[in-house]
Design goal:
The protein is mainly α. It has ten helices and no strands. It comes from Planobispora rosea.
Amino acid sequence: MTEGLRERKKRETRLRISDVATGMFMARGFDNVTVAEVARAADVSVNTVFNYFPTKEDLLLDRASEVEELLARVFREREPGESALEAVRRDFLDALETGHYRYGFHEGGDLLIRMIETSPSLSARIREMDDTRERRLAEAIAEELDADPDDLTPAAVAAQIGAVLRTVVGYAVRRMLAGETVAAVAPDLRRQAEHAFALLEKGIGGYGARREK
């Protein structure tokens, strides 16, 4: 479907506001910039800013909805014979290898991480995103496998996968906060991630494997 003029203008306005806000946050720090200042710099009203971004945190974390849906999408798009764990492991390692932003490890990602770690509200928003991402994975698993409402397995599997991701991401964050770049951390992070996923595979590795066609 071709994008209409109205939709294109709305998308361009949203992108402009986000780009202006991100530049100001990077230059001055997240907590030192107000929404009103962002609105003035982007030549829009404060109400317009909030029409596109429900909270100030969303101005910086403008891909929140994509991140929150990530694991559920990876699960739904897994290959025949591929389990939930195998699909997430493959996607995580691919993102690390290609430098894609979806797990937070991309060029310049270390600057974003430092900003998040120094802002309590941003850190809280990230935890909220992690919780939502994990819950949506559990819901996707339960729906596709037609799990009984009293079956806690989908939630337990999602929680374990989420815990592994938080653990390996936390390892990388600590090193980047100490001054290392994404490129410097990536090789060790891959080894740590492969080890963590291998440990988990012994417990839930085959759960949720898609049937061969």
